[in-house]
Description:
Helices cover about 40% and strands about 5% of the residues. By secondary structure, it is mainly alpha-helical. It has one domain. It has a two-stranded antiparallel sheet. It starts with a helix and ends with a helix.
Amino acid sequence: MIRLMFSAVVLFGISMLVGCGKEATYTKAKTAEAKGNADEIAHSGWWCDEHGIKESECSMCSPKVAKAFQDKKDWCDKHLRAKSQCFICDPSLREKFAAQYRAKFGKEPPEPTDNMPEKADKES
């Protein structure tokens, strides 16, 4: 019985170290900072499908990028993202980023799952 419990604890520990293989994401940089996780979250692609912005510039996924925008006073306190990336406050900004995607890939970008005015209206 002790051997079985020991094996279960070891397997549980290994599974916790390995994880499920999915990358963690933060949709709001402030949430990450509040939890004490100021490290930038790694994303594998060039484009942030969730927010409709280049991954390296996404203020919603990266606390480091968010801080840079905050330091430049380019911040939307209401939606916790760079004001220059807030499609909720200014839907016309989406075209600026979509043009970058089209220039690189020659096709329309995927529809963002967050950072959209209609989604924010439903949540309010």
